[in-house]
Amino acid sequence: MASPASVVSAATMSPPTGSEAPGCDPQLAAVTAERKRKRKESNRLSAQRSRARKQRQLDELTDQVAALRARNGAMAAAAYDIERRCAAVQAENTLLQAMNLELGERLQSLTELIQWMEGAMYHQPQPQPQLLDANMYNYY
């Protein structure tokens, strides 16, 4: 058990509060109450500022979400348009490749025909100009 001297010394070490000490100084109690009131007011204002700051942050994030959704929608529309144009270009490219193949074959055929005609012209005797003129008069 604790001795009476240790109980008295422990009691004198802690400062008495306004409700514990009936003979306490009223001016000290008023100062303490004022400090407590100011601390509560300060805490209340700090909490109010904190809530306002959080609300501003939430509003900013909400605005960012709206802006990003709008941007995402615009980008999706642009991507769709690009895909549509790409498909049209691919279809046109396929058509042009087929036309190129067809025209290449036609050119090859015409080139062969020209070569054949040039070869035939050099191997056949040419009509004489006098014979042509004489033949022209025979038809009348």
UniProtKB/TrEMBL annotation:
Pfam families: bZIP_1. The keyword Membrane does not apply. Residues 1-58 are annotated as: Disordered. One of its GO terms (cellular component) is nucleus. SMART domains: BRLZ. GO terms for biological process: positive regulation of DNA-templated transcription. Residues 33-96 form the BZIP domain. It is found in: Nucleus. GO terms for molecular function: DNA-binding transcription factor activity; protein heterodimerization activity; transcription cis-regulatory region binding. CDD domains: bZIP_plant_GBF1. Gene3D superfamilies: 1.20.5.170. Keywords: DNA-binding, Nucleus, Transcription, Transcription regulation. SUPFAM superfamilies: Leucine zipper domain. This is BZIP domain-containing protein. It comes from Setaria italica (Foxtail millet). The lineage of its organism: Eukaryota, Viridiplantae, Streptophyta, Embryophyta, Tracheophyta. The gene is LOC101759214.
